[in-house]
Structure formats: C-alpha cells, structure tokens
Amino acid sequence: MDVSRRHLDDNAFDLLPTEEQVLRVALVVLLVLLAALFSGLTLGLMCLDKFGLQIVVDAGEDAHATEDEKTNAKYAKKIQKVRQDGHLLLTSLLIANVSVSTILSIVLADMTSGVTGFLISTVVLVLFGELLPQALCSRHPLFIGAKSLPIVWFFVVVLYVIAKPIALALDWMLGREIGNLFTKREIGKMLDIHVKQNLLDADETDIMRGAMHFKAKVVASVMTPIDQVYSLPTTTKLTLATIRHIYQQGYSRIPVYHKDIHDIVGLIFVKDLIFADPAEETTLLHFVHVFGRGVHRVWPDSTLGDVLQAFKMGRTHLALVHDVNNAGPGDPFYETKGIVTLEDIVEEILQADIYDESDQIDADVTRKNRLSHRSYDTGVDRVILDDDRTKKLAKPEADALAKYLVASEPVFLTPDANGVPLDVAKVSNLLSQSHLLEFRAQDSPHAELLTQGKATNGCVIVLQGHVIVSSNSDSSTKRGLWSLFGAHALLECDAESDVTVDLPPDEYVRCVRVSRLDFQATLFPMNIAEQPAVLAERRLEIQIHQDHQDHNAFIISHYCRQCFTVT
C-alpha cells in the first residue's frame, strides 16, 4: 500500500491536466527569475555605497565627462534615492528573496520527489537563482539596478511594514551606513593599482602623492641654507654697474641684510629696479624703505601646508626661515637659517625639480644647493647696458611704462578704428617700437628736446635722469621719471610744443620719443601695399608733414623697407 502511494506521488505531476502543468512550469520560471533578480540586486545594489554613487554622479556632471561617464551618472542618480536607507533596502531584498526561494522549493517539491527533486531544486536555485545573477549584477550594477528600480520600489513598499522595524533595529545596533572611506596610505595603494592597469601614468600618481603628503613635511627639509643665498648689504649703492650685476644673477627676489647675513631687514624685487636712477646712487636701505617690501618669517618646523597658506594670503613667494640660537653663554637670539620659496613647495607637490630655460643644471648638485631661476627676459639686461647697442625699449620696461601711461595719461586711452580704447598691450608694443634717446654728460651741450612754439611730431617721455622744463613765465622746474611732454602732438598734425624741454649738462638722461605717425598707426593699423605707387604717395605725404629732419629721415627709411597703406 505504501509503495503504491509513493508511486502515485511520483507520478502526480504527470497525472495533472496539461493546462495545470503549463501553469506550474510558468510559475517555477517566474519564481526563478524573481529569485535571480533579488539575489543579484542584493549583491549589486549593496556594493554601491553612497560615496561611490556620488562620485559617479559628480564625474558625469563634469563639463569634460565622456559619454560613458554621463550614462553611468544618469543610472547612479536614479539608484541614489533607493540606496539612501541601506538597511531598509537590504532587509526588503532579503525577505523577498527568501520568500520566493521558499515558495519555489514548495512548488518543485510538488512536481518532483526523491533524489531527482533534490538535484533539480539544487541546480535551479544555485545556478539560476544565485550564481549567474550575482555574477552578472556584480559586473553591471548601475545598469541593472537602474532598470530594475520599479520592481525594487514595489517590494520595498509592499514589505515596508515588516522590513522597516528590522532596518531600524540594524541602525540602532550597527549605526547608519556612511559609505566607504580610505586612508592616504590606502589611496596610495589604489593609485599603484591604477598605474598597473594603465589608467594613470607615473607622473600623475607622483603629483597626487605629493599633494597628499606635502602638508606633513617641514620647512627645514626643503629650505635653501642662508649661506647659499645671494643677498646684499643695505649699504650697497644702486649704480649702473650694481644694477647690471644684480640683473645678471637671475634672481627675482633678493634679501637685504644690515649687520650680517642673519640680520635680514627686507627684500628687493628685481623688477622694482626699473625705478632706480643709477645717477642718484641710491642705497639699498633707502630703496627698501621706499618700496616697503616686508619679509615673511617662518620656523624650521613649520609645515609646508601652513607656509603655502601664508603665501596665498600674504601674496608673497619667499619667506625667511629663522630659529632661536641658544648656543653660547649669552642670551638667546633669532638667527636666519635659510629661505623657502613657493617654488620649493610646488616641487614637493610635483615630486620633481623645476628648471626654466636659463637654469644651469648640474646633476651632482642637489636641489637645495641651487637657488632660484632667471625669471626675467634676458632683454632686460640691455636696458642697463652702458653702450649704444640699445635703441629700443626692452619689453619689461615697456610693459611697466605702458601700465603707467594707460592709467594716468588720457591720450593713451584714445579709441582706435573700432572705437576700443588703447590697452596696455598695444601701448607697450608702441613703446617697444619707438626711438630711444640717450644723452651723456660728457657729450654736452645738448640740443633742446622740445622748444616752445615750435612744431613737434610726437611726444617725449623721460625714462631716466631729469630734464629742465620752462615756459614764457621764465620759471623752470626739474621733471624726472616718466614725465610726459607734447602729448597733444600725438593727435594734432601741426602741433606746437607748449614748453621748452632742455637737458642738464651734468647728468645722464634717457628718454623715449613716440612719433605721431607710430601712434596713429597703432590706432589705425596699416597693411602691406602691393602697388609701388602707394609707396611713392606715402613717401611724399611723410616729407610734407614732417618738420623734424632727423625724424623725417628715420620714417622714410622705415617705409623704404616695407610699403604700407592705411586700411
């Protein structure tokens, strides 16, 4: 009797009507799909922590994001909402998965029995309900998770009454989920993995490591010792030879000391030397007081992060490193140990030495034993050479003068052909092309630069020394650096000088003459003419309108080399 009943149970599924068999098979397939979905989503969604999703979203919203990054960001943004409460999502998916697996086991038990039923149930649940879906979802969690959100939300809502208390209990016992965070050491190891996978190169990882670790380094490890620093005493006189020597050193900032090298009282910026008049032989002490370049001081054990912040707030690129000297029987005193520059900190971040085009690189010399770089155009040196090789302004001096003229002289804000006022770049270019005049004491007497009542074809700007200015009132005054005379002649064709500008017999004077023709050419640019007749016409026009013989010859020779026509 028992054997016959067992035989009937084994064939019970075969005895069912065909329609019911089809429904049971369809139910098994549906349950397997649901079990696979919940199992895969449990692994796929839970491996996406909050910080990881936010990183994907932010990367996709970047202006330079790729199409794949934008697509992943769209998926991640959808998943973020359901992933906010991690314990609720986990509880809902597990309850649903266990429920579906239990129902599937019961249905399969009714359809099969014995060893056959055990094998079928095990293979179906493990292979199709767990293994394949988890492997698939672990590879594509964003895509599958975003596409399955409606089903996930449905079961979260349906199971909310059961899942929420369990989730709250997990929050109370384990704390709320905050996401995965990494230490600097772990991030460094992650960078190594990215380099091995060719996602980053070595230079990029070096910079990242430098940016992470430079703040912990101290100034003493990167500073330049004070005995290797180029510095000058306060008694130094700014003669032409001294200025030339300073420029040739190639440093942008130079410490100035009083008693000895440990008594630093200030800094001079080499670019400020353009304001120095070699004829006056000003001392560095006076020069430092005039320009007020203070010195920022730090301690040897100060971190590079603190020093960088000080550089950013104080708008300085160099600091003195000082420390208390307790040696000897006397009282402790402050002693300068060296200097640290912004470049030193940048090199620590980049994990590489920085060289410019004029550095002399010696492989046997460490970075701490070399100091600074030439930060100026070598054309600056020509400005201070005491010979006749220089007949044009060098660019740094032209730029400085152009900034002053644009800020203080209305004529250099005249609108051009397009109605746009002249800017510093255009004025600097005009000054660089203008004729440079030099008058030495040994060559006196000199002719007058400008004569009141006489025609002039341009303006004169004093660059160095002083000139004597007089008018009909019989009073005369001395005018110096960047004084401008004859500005109206840049705009008027038949302008006459309103003052007389004379040169002192015992002083070196250097000035630049800006011609009306060059000024107008800056306002109304000229193009090269293809017809020779235009050249002849232009020559005749120049000869008629230019009163100054020397300047007239200069202009004609200029146009002999290239033919222009007004656009």
TrEMBL record:
Transmembrane residue ranges: 25-48, 88-109, 115-132, 144-163
Q: Name one GO cellular component term.
A: membrane
Q: Which residues form the Cyclic nucleotide-binding domain?
A: 422-523
Keyword Transmembrane belongs to the record = yes
Matching CDD domains: CBS_pair_CorC_HlyC_assoc (cd04590)
| Domain CNNM transmembrane, chain residue ranges per copy | 17-204
Membrane topology qualifier: Multi-pass membrane protein
Q: Which Pfam families match?
A: CNNM
Q: Which SUPFAM superfamilies match?
A: CBS-domain pair
What name goes with this protein? CNNM transmembrane domain-containing protein
